Amino acid sequence: MTEGFIKIATITKPFGLKGQVKARTEGETIKKLSLPKEIFLKTNTHLQSYTLRHRFSQKDCFVLTLDRIETIEKAETLRSVEVYLPEKHLPKTAKDEFYFYQLVGLHPKDSGVVLTDYRVVEVMDNPAHPILVIQGKEGEILIPFINRFIGDVDLMEKSIQVLDWEDWFAV
Q1: Contact (CB, 8 A) for 90 and 100
Q2: Total-model pTM
């Protein structure tokens, strides 16, 4: 259903009386988009195309202006709707940058050894920092995605360096 599309936000509620909506974003993709841009809203079980005409940041979210949504009543119907962008339309990343969705499926690496019995299954959004959810034979491990605990990310090798790997089993 959403194969080839990346979730970039979730609409939380209407903003004002003219159909704008507030959206909690996944990363900084919305901020980097050139406008206008075709986006897709997941309503029920299908994706519906809209044009993102304008956006501005407000505290911990973005306010979006979409075509065909001109009233608060129409905006109200979009509560909790997920916003998607075709993967091919994501802004290009720099050499050492990546999107969080690209971390899913990577295997942790400890002292140069890729641990194929474990893999990243989710990147949880958290106000302080993202959290990697890694599953493996020992169960689920939650690791903050910060420099103190995470080293190099190698998308070609499909690995992510976890510093002090053995310490995560004592927690």
Answers
A1: no
A2: 0.74
